[in-house]
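User: My collaborator sent over this chain with a note saying "see what the structure looks like." That's all I know about it. Can you take a look?
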Amino acid sequence: MNRATRRGLRWLLAALVLGAVFAAYLNPEMAVDLASRVWACF
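Assistant: Without extra context I'll predict from the sequence alone. Here is the result:
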């Protein structure tokens, strides 16, 4: 794989992760549950 291909794959992966995060926040119950889990770690 050349450098441009790897760079493009990284951008694609980042876009997919951000899209999944934004889609998850469309469900408010999931957002509250996630925040509660993160808060429980501290």
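A starting point for your reply to your collaborator: The chain has one domain: 3-40.
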